[in-house]
Amino acid sequence: MPQNSLQPDLPLIVIVADSAQKVRYVHEEMQKFLDYPVSGCSGRDLSEVIWDIAGQRLNGTPDKGYGELLFSRGTEEYRLTVQLLDSGREQAAPEITVILQKNGDTERRNLEQELSLNLQRYKIALSRCSNIIWEYHLDEDCAYLQGDRRLPFAPSGKITDFSKKMVKDKCVDPESLPALRQMFLDLKAGNPMACALLHIRRNDGGQRWFRVTHTVLRSGDGADHIAIGVAEDISREQKEQERYQQEEKYRQALVVDALASYEIDIDNDRIIEKIIENNKDMLASVGLSVNCRYTQFLKRWAEKNIHTEDRFIFLQEMNPDVLRRRFENGHQEAECEYRSLNANNEMIWCNTTIYLIESGGHLMGFVYVKNIEEKKRKELELLRQSRIDPLTGLLNRAACLQEINYLLKENGPEESALLIIDVDNFKMVNDTFGHMYGDKVLAGIAYKLRDIFDEDAIVGRLGGDEFLIFMFHIPGEDAVCHKAQIVARELQTIQQEGENQVVVTNSIGIAFSPRHGCRFQELYVKADTALRYAKQSGKSCYSVFGDKISRVVPMQYVNREWLLDELEEIVYISDIQDYTLLYVNRVGREQIGMKLEDFEKKKCYQMLQGRNTPCPFCNNAKLVKESFITWEYENPYLKKYFIVKDKLVEWNGRPVRMEIAVDVGNHLIGDYTTTAKYHMETVMLESLRTLNSAEDLESGITRILELITRFYDGCRSYIIEIDRERGYAHNTYEWCREGIPSQKDSLQNIALDAIPYIFETFNRKQHLIISRVEELKYTYPSEYQFLKRRRAHSLFAVPFEDETAFSGYIGVDNPNINQDTIRLLDTIAYNIANEIKKRRLYERLEFEAGHDTLSGLLNRSSFVRYQSEIEKKCGASCGIITADINGLKQLNQDFGHSRGDETIIEVTRIMRSSFPEGDIFRLSGDEFVIVAMNMAYENFMKLVKNMGIELDSRTPSGVSLGTTWVEHLTDFDVLLHHAEELMLVNKQIYYKNSDEVRKHYSPEGLKLLVHDVEQGYYRLYLQPKFDPETGTVHSVEALSRYQAPGRDLQSPVKFVSLLEKMKLIRYLDFYMLEEVFRLLSRWKAEGKPLIPVSVNFSRITLLESDLFQMLTEIQSKYDVPCDMVMIEITERIGDMEHKVMESIGSKLRKAGFRISLDDFGADYANMSILSIMHFDEVKLDKSLVENLVENEKNQIIVRCIIEMCRRLHVDCVAEGVETKEQLDLLKEYGCTTIQGFYYSKPVDAGQFLV
Questions:
Q1: pLDDT-based confidence at residue 794 (cuts at 50, 70, 90)
Q2: Bridge partners, 1158 (sequence order)
Q3: pLDDT by residue (tens digit) across 416-464?
Q4: Where in this chain does the record put each GGDEF domain (predicted)?
Q5: Which end of the chain is more exposed for a tag (fewer CB within 10 A), N or C?
Q6: Do 894 and 988 belong to one domain?
Q7: Does residue 7 fall inside a structural domain?
Q8: How confident is the model at residue 499 (pLDDT cuts 50, 70, 90)?
């Protein structure tokens, strides 16, 4: 500050405030005017501090730029002047300064007496003051510097033209000039004080900030002649202000997207600001408030809200001591990612960042908490995808390598084993059933491997048909070999589809650590060597590196043991002749206490009944394949009561006994002591009988719910199933008493967070007993409303599980009796859950049988069934789309199957969104079919067009589509064939513009065709058409012929069908068309008369989407009218859908060509085609002409066709006329044109005379 004490008539800056009038600085001189410490002024309102000093309000307002007041203390009078200063820079906010000046209006004699003393004080103050001070004479515009300090632009003591020099001097930054000019204008206007903030450039190149203040000294005559100028260097203060503003802006920017933000005093371990998230006080939520200990808050917050797996790292990273060390090591921030409950009680991923700043000698932290849930989920998903094989869900090769190396490195030479499993004959599976079926086999193998090995084992897919198992902390090498036997046995299957079948076995190579190595690469080489040895030894076996082969006998028939192991009942298979046990499922083995290998060569009566001879009640002789025999039995050996179901089944090619035993409790019979218990057990047994004998699951469960409702005298019983993936619950079954309305439809898609009390109770595996629903009204209002809506005032409910997770519950609303026997619900829930589990397993198998695993679409098997049933829908409109993904195989080869799978999934998504009501099938790797029933043609084509655009833009090489639509479906297979034809035609366009070789494209054939055309082997022949009345030629038909050197001339019948099959016919059709235009052009140039020429086009060429473009392109090369060329299309085009024919006719007409219908009557006369397309000519097939003379029916038909053509104003051409008798009859019928050998055979175009 400029002075250490107040001098008479000398201004002293005593207060500095910001633009918001908050005090930032108070001079220590002010202590004499205040009743409290000067430090207490900081942060207070300026007006309050002025009142405390002067005891009166300010005359004028600081925000207007100026104000002052006079006040007295004792015998002294003072003047307070308030000035709003603006630097003129946009970045710097204005500030308010308060200047205190002691009035010099005491008696003159006192002034004179003290004048000398004051002058000395003034000189001493100048010598000690760091400010630059001068006298400014306003009238002269001259300044006299006081003391030794000088202005940067005024080295001398006297400065003339002071205001002009200051404004013009280059030392003043241009941005400060407006403020400087305003200061001098204020002085000239008579203001007693004027200030400016100036940015000054020093001679050494540095820059400083000065606060320049002029205070006018009034003379005795009242005129303003002299002002005292003070330049105070405030560079440091200005930098602090700018830093403060920058920090504030930065902080505000951070707060925008933060869940919460607050400030902490790290050195004093205090939170000095409220923590608000979503209008909720987060400190109060853990029983704390502002100024609480920061470490106390961390501990409580972590215990209540932080995920248990993340608490340690959160507490460690956010600890004050850790933060202080980070700051001392030069770090300006600390952050931590963790999972925490937010204000809505949702567990989300969060990021807490603490910016560390030293302020006032204290280390402070500005804390920002952000929601990174979406970002973190994407990161974790990308990490998971990078480690998981997409087909099997197992670890991929890279992840296996990383995990195994980590275990080997961290744990040293522990006993462990590496197994490499390779599927035998897998290529045969792919070749027999296709790659999609092969993928199913691999997925099934992965499923079994996960089931066989515990969670500690690493199970992965190395690639192709190779799998890897790494077992750590093994009990011994024999245990591993035993596991290998189980794997080899469990993975043996026969894949069968239709009449084809192929046996799938596997070979296994094993290496042990540390015996064979302590690093993955060493173990892998040894295990792979053992695997190759197993393969060379006949496959279907396992081998330990360096040891002998251990053979596993391959199965000969499909083994469904893995499915039986999924059941919760005891299931066993035994020989009906000698009672030998062939198989016991997992539950049976656990009940008996036996291992998988223990039952081999044992008798069923020994292992299951504890007998030495066959059971006297054995019913083997009564068993049949068609149905179960159901009976009840108390097993004295197992001491349990069972409901038993026996049946004759096929097992490995022979009839065997299969028994399913349902456990209904320990010695239930004979233990009843009360009527209630007896009634309960009766209901239990009746429920089990119902489940096992019901025709279908729904009727069985409905009957059981009725039994439960009546047992408890309730009004409604029901089953709620949980869909954890989607977060919803669904009422799947219910039974209501008469007069009680059903609630099933209204209890669908129940959000789990809407029933937290119920959900959490069952998650804890507890029963739910609510005696009075009203008790939930205030504690769980959402569930209260949930129960009240269905008129429940009390309820019983017990959960059931799927594997280990709660998957649903069975409940009774308003039970009135037997409320102490909830055990009944427990037992029934267990059995119902088992049935539901079997149903879900069946549904899954049924779904997989009819659906594609990757896309979820219906598969080829479903399509075959669909074709057989579609005939029922005949008569309805039907649109079919066939689709083939372009370049999928190349995509798989270049970027891996995962990229190809992504493309398939994207194509599936687009198809589903385009045709949500359509039936969509994936027939094979890249082939799809969409069937849309009862859709108008215009809407269908619009959807097809939009889908095609999206498919082309969202896939690497696009998708080839073929579409057909009929108003009335008659033959689905024909319609499908036409769609496939169109798709293949469009596929050719893709191949034509691509270098790829595909199954529908023959580059060698095309190369040969182009060579033959260039060599002139394909030649143009013409056959004239005659007017039968005059015998003159009025048009010709262009015909192609093929003749290679040394070979006979070949007609089109020899090569057209082959070119159509190879999809190359378009090249010949367009070549012949151009030859015709070239011929007509030559005739015109030679001055010969032009006659119309007709050209044959294949049906496949007519289907091409670029037909119009090709026709126009060829015609534009020649100066020949298009109506001189007629396009002949075969009658077989009538098989096409009407809309397709209309489109073809429209394209030809638009191009200017005439149209001829060829071979009319060859197979059958499709009369409707004549009403759909406009023809210029109809050609009778020669089959109608050759028997014309002998066959009267032919004569009637031909006469009618000719008459029809006459009425339609269409020229009728008779082909194949060879005799005069035929000619005479045709002339008699009025035929207008004759073509055939009678007049002329086809001749070479070069020899044809016009």
A1: very high
A2: 1130
A3: 999 999 888 777 676 556 667 778 888 888 888 888 887 788 999 887 7
A4: 414-547, 876-1000
A5: C
A6: yes
A7: no
A8: very low
Beta bridge partners of 216: 227
Q: Tell me the pLDDT tens digit for each residue of 90-117.
A: 555 677 888 887 765 444 444 444 554 5
How far apart are the C-alpha atoms of 359 and 825, rounded to whole Å? 67
Q: What share of the chain is helix, strand, coil (3-state, %, to 5)?
A: 40, 25, 30
Which of 576-585, 670-679, 980-989 is predicted with the least confidence, judged by mean pLDDT? 670-679
482 and 520 assigned to the same domain: yes
Q: Are residues 359 and 444 in the same domain?
A: no
Amino acid present at 891 = L
Token pair listed for 535: 């393969």
E-assigned strand segments in 156-235:
158-159, 193-201, 207-218, 224-233
Mean pLDDT across the chain: 80
Q: CA 725 to CA 170: how far, in whole Å?
A: 73
Look at residue 175 and tell me if it is in a domain. yes
Domain enclosing residue 631, as ranges: 561-663
DSSP state letters, 727-795:
TEEEEEEEEE-TTPPP-TTTSSSEEGGG-HHHHHHHHTT--EEES-GGGGTTTSHHHHHHHHTTT-S-E
**801-853: pLDDT as tens digits:** 876 678 899 999 999 888 777 777 887 887 788 777 777 766 666 677 778 88
Relative to beta strand 959-966, strand 76-85 is: unpaired
Residue 246 lies in a domain: no
DSSP 3-state of 589: helix
Give the list of residues 6+ apart from residue 1144 with CB closer than 8 angstroms, or none: 1102, 1103, 1107, 1129, 1133, 1136, 1173
Q: Dihedral sign, CA of 1051, 1053, 1059, 1064?
A: positive
User: 681 or 1189: whose pLDDT is higher?
Assistant: 1189
For residue 514, is the peptide bond before it cis, meaning its omega torsion is within 30 degrees of 0?
Answer: yes
Condensed to tens digits (0 to 9), the pLDDT of residues 240-269 reads 676 666 555 555 545 556 778 888 999 989
- Split at pLDDT 50, 70, 90, the class of 155 is low
CB atoms within 10 A of CB 366: 20
CB of 467 closer than 8 Å to CB of 444: no
Same domain as 612, residue 507? no
The pLDDT value given to residue 557: 33
- C-alpha closest to that of 865 among 932, 928, 933, 921: 921
- Tokens standing for residue 670: 């004979």
Q: Nearest Cα to 1093, choosing from 1205, 1250, 1212? A: 1250
Half-sphere exposure of 725 (CA within 13 A, CB side): 0
Does residue 3 lie in a domain region?
no
For the full predicted model, state whether its pTM sits above 0.70: no
Find the mean pLDDT for residues 349-375: 84
Structure tokens at 940: 């269908």
Contacts of 342 (CB under 8 A, 6+ apart): 259, 277, 278, 348, 350, 371
Q: Can you read off the two tokens belonging to residue 1077?
A: 């235009």
Chosen domain end from 219, 234, 249? 234
Shared-domain flag, residues 737 and 805: yes
Pair (600, 733) in one structural domain: no
Token pair of 659 as six digits: 């028994």
Q: Which two tokens stand for residue 124?
A: 């001493």
Those residues with Cβ within 8 angstroms of residue 460's Cβ, 6 or more apart along the chain or in another chain? 389, 394, 395, 396, 397, 399, 400, 467, 468
CB 333 within 8 A of CB 354: yes
Among 310, 287, 165, 143, residue whose Cα is nearest residue 229: 143
Q: Quick one: tokens of 545?
A: 């590196």
Runs of H (alpha helix) within 453-578: 477-490, 520-536, 561-564
Tell how far CA 519 is from the center of its chain: 38
Q: Which of 973, 962, 1130, 983 is nearest to 1063 (CA)?
A: 983
Helix (H, G, I), strand (E, B) or coil at 969: coil
Tens digits of residue pLDDT in 540-596: 778 888 765 444 433 333 335 555 665 678 888 899 988 988 888 888 888 888 776
Scanning 491-571, the segments in alpha helix (DSSP H) are 520-536, 561-564
